[in-house]
Design brief:
Helices cover 42% and strands 12% of the residues. With 504 residues, it is of the alpha/beta class. The strands form 2 sheets. It has a 7-stranded mixed sheet with strand order 1-7-6-5-4-2-3, with helices on both faces. The protein has a 4-stranded antiparallel sheet with strand order 8-9-11-10. The protein binds pyridoxal-5'-phosphate.
C-alpha cells in the first residue's frame, strides 16, 4: 500500500487520522480567529490588490506543500472575504450561516452522499423525505403533496414553471412536451407575475422556450403587491387576443422590498382563470416559523408549487433550497428512468430515487443542515430570530424617516429601501450620484455594506437586515454616519471623499 495515497483519504490509519485532525484544527482556528472575530465586514482592500493576491495564491504546485504554509494562504483568502456573519454586512439576501449548518457541512462532505438514487444514500434519502414532509405539513398541504431539495430559488422557480408549462401543453394542446418537444402553439402561452417578481421568472421563461416576452408584468399597489385589478385586466386582455395565460407567479418576499403578494386573493384569481399558481417564497418562506408574521403568507397551501430558500432567511450555508408541489403527480412531467440509476422496477418495489423529481442528478445532502439546525435551536427560537429582524427593520425605517431620509416603503420583511436627500431642490441626477457614492464609500471603508438599486428610475440604498445580532443602537450609528458623510459630498466634479474616516 502506498502511504502517500492513503493519508489523503478517510481511511483507518494513523496517518489519515493525523492529517485530518490537523486540517480540522487549523480550519477551526481560522474560523474562530478570522471569521468570528472580525471587527468590520470587509478589509477594504482594492480590487487590484485582491486580484493580485488571488493570482499569487492560486499557483498550483507539482508536489504538495506543508499544511502550515497552505493554511497561511487560505487564511489570506478568508481575510479578504466579505464577512457575512458581521451584522453590518447588509447588502443582499445573503445570510450569516448558523453554526449547526456549518458543522453539518462537514458531515455532508465526509459522507458525500449523492441524493440521486436510494442505493447511494440509503439513510439520507429518507431524512430528506421526512424533512420535506415536515415542511409540507407546515405549509398546510395534504398528503399527496411532495417536494425536493434544490440548489436554490433559481432552480426552484425554473422547476415550478417547467411543470406548469408541461401541464399546460398537455391540457391545451394535448402535447407531451417531455417526449415531443414544444408544439407551435406554445408561442401563445403567457405567464403573469408582478413587476417586482424575481428576474429568474423571465430567465426561466427564456430557457423554457417561451421567451422573455411570454412574461406579462402586472402592476403593483402602494404596498408593492400584485394589483388584482390590473391582473384581471391583463388576463382578460390576453384572452381577447386569443393568447393563453397558464401560470401566475406570486412573490412572498420580493427581492428589493420584501413585499408579500396577497396569496389568498391570488389563489382565488388562479382558480377562476385556471392558472397554475407558483409562489416564490425564496425570501419570505421563513415566516412559516414566525410567531408574529405567519399570517402574511395567508393560505400558502393554495399554491400549485412553492419555492423556499433555506440559504436566505433560514440562515443556512449556500446552497440550500427546496421546491414543493401540491400534487406529486406533477413530477411525472420531468421523470426520466435510467436503467443504471433509477429503473422502473425500483418504482414498483417502492424504492425512492430522488432523481425522479429533480432536474439535478448528483445532488447534495442539504437536508441534514435543516435537521441539525432545528434539532439544536428549536423552532421557537428560530421564529423569534426572524421576528426580531423584522421588528428591527421597522424601527430602522422609522428612524430613517425621522432623519429626513426618503424611505420608499413600509417594510413587510427586513429589507429597507431608502436614500439620502441632501438639500431640497438638489437635482435628481446629483442625488443619484451622491447615493451611489455613499454605497461605494462605505463598502471601501469596510464598515458598512449596503446594496444599491433603482426604483422609479432613481437610485436607492438598501439595508437587508437579516442578522439577528444587529441592534437598533448600531443602526442609529450607521444612519448618523451616512448623514455625516452624505453632507460632505459636494457637487464639485472629481472631488472624492475617501480621506474622511468614520469613527465607530
Ligand atoms: C434569491 C431569490 C431567488 C433566487 O434564488 P437563488 O437561491 O439565488 O437561486 C428567487 N426569488 C427570490 C424572491 C429571491 O429572493
Amino acid at each position: 500500500m502506498n502511504t502517500n495515497f492513503e493519508q489523503w483519504f478517510q481511511h483507518p490509519s494513523e496517518q489519515s487520522e493525523k492529517i485530518f485532525q490537523e486540517l480540522i484544527e487549523s480550519t477551526a482556528s481560522i474560523i474562530v480567529n478570522k471569521v468570528m472575530k472580525v471587527n468590520k465586514p470587509f478589509t477594504g482592500a482594492s480590487r487590484e490588490d485582491i486580484q493580485a493576491m488571488a493570482r499569487e495564491i492560486t499557483r498550483m504546485p507539482v508536489c504538495g506543500q506543508h499544511i502550515e504554509s497552505v493554511m497561511d494562504d487560505i487564511q489570506e483568502i478568508v481575510k479578504h472575504s466579505l464577512s457575512i456573519s458581521h451584522p453590518s454586512a447588509m447588502a443582499h439576501l445573503h445570510c450569516p450561516p448558523l453554526l449547526p449548518s456549518i458543522a453539518a457541512e462537514m458531515i455532508i462532505g465526509a459522507l458525500n452522499q449523492s441524493m440521486d438514487s436510494w442505493d447511494q444514500s440509503p439513510m439520507a434519502t429518507y431524512v430528506e423525505e421526512e424533512v420535506l414532509k415536515y415542511f409540507i405539513k407546515l405549509i398546510g398541504y395534504q398528503a399527496n403533496a411532495d417536494g425536493v431539495f434544490t440548489s436554490g430559488g433559481t432552480q426552484s422557480n425554473y422547476m415550478g414553471l417547467l411543470l406548469a408549462r408541461n401541464q399546460a401543453c398537455q391540457t391545451y394542446f394535448s402535447t407531451n412536451v417531455q417526449r415531443d418537444g414544444l408544439p407551435i402553439e406554445a408561442s401563445k402561452l403567457r405567464i403573469l407575475c408582478s413587476e417586482h417578481a424575481h428576474f429568474t421568472i423571465q430567465q426561466s421563461a427564456a430557457q423554457l422556450g417561451l421567451g422573455i416576452n411570454s412574461v406579462v408584468k402586472v402592476k403593483t399597489n402602494d404596498q408593492q403587491q400584485i394589483c388584482l385589478d390590473d391582473a384581471r385586466k391583463k388576463l382578460n386582455h390576453l384572452h381577447q387576443q386569443e393568447l393563453i395565460p397558464f401560470a401566475i407567479v406570486a412573490t412572498a418576499g420580493t427581492t428589493d422590498f420584501g413585499s408579500i403578494d396577497n396569496l389568498n386573493d391570488i389563489t382565488e384569481l388562479a382558480d377562476v382563470y385556471r392558472l397554475w399558481m407558483h409562489v416564490d417564497a425564496a425570501y419570505g418562506g421563513a415566516l412559516l416559523f414566525s410567531h408574529q408574521y405567519r399570517h402574511l403568507l395567508g393560505q400558502l397551501s393554495g399554491a400549485d408549487s412553492i419555492t423556499i430558500d433555506f440559504h436566505k432567511l433560514y440562515y443556512q450555508t449556500i446552497s440550500c433550497g427546496a421546491f414543493f408541489v401540491k400534487d406529486r403527480q406533477s413530477f411525472q412531467h420531468i421523470m426520466y428512468h435510467a436503467d443504471y440509476l433509477n429503473p422502473e422496477e425500483d418504482h414498483e418495489e417502492g424504492i425512492i430515487n430522488l432523481v425522479d423529481k429533480s432536474i439535478q442528478t448528483t445532488k447534495r445532502f442539504d437536508a441534514l443542515k435543516i435537521l441539525m439546525t432545528f434539532k439544536l435551536i428549536g423552532t421557537d427560537t428560530f421564529g423569534e430570530m426572524v421576528d426580531y429582524t423584522i421588528q428591527l427593520a421597522n424601527k430602522t425605517a422609522q428612524h430613517l424617516r425621522l432623519n429626513d431620509f426618503d424611505v420608499i416603503h413600509e417594510p413587510m420583511l427586513n429589507a429597507v429601501l431608502f436614500r439620502f436627500l441632501p438639500d431640497i431642490g438638489d437635482d435628481p441626477q446629483f442625488v443619484d450620484e451622491l447615493n451611489i457614492e455613499l454605497q461605494r464609500y462605505f463598502y471601501q471603508s469596510g464598515e458598512l455594506i449596503m446594496a444599491k438599486t433603482k426604483q422609479n428610475g432613481r437610485v436607492y440604498l438598501k439595508f437587508t437586515m437579516l442578522h439577528p445580532l444587529n441592534t437598533f443602537e448600531k443602526m442609529k450609528q450607521h444612519i448618523e454616519n451616512i448623514k455625516q458623510i452624505g453632507k460632505k459630498i459636494k457637487r464639485e466634479e472629481g472631488e472624492k471623499i475617501y480621506e474622511y474616516s468614520v469613527h465607530y
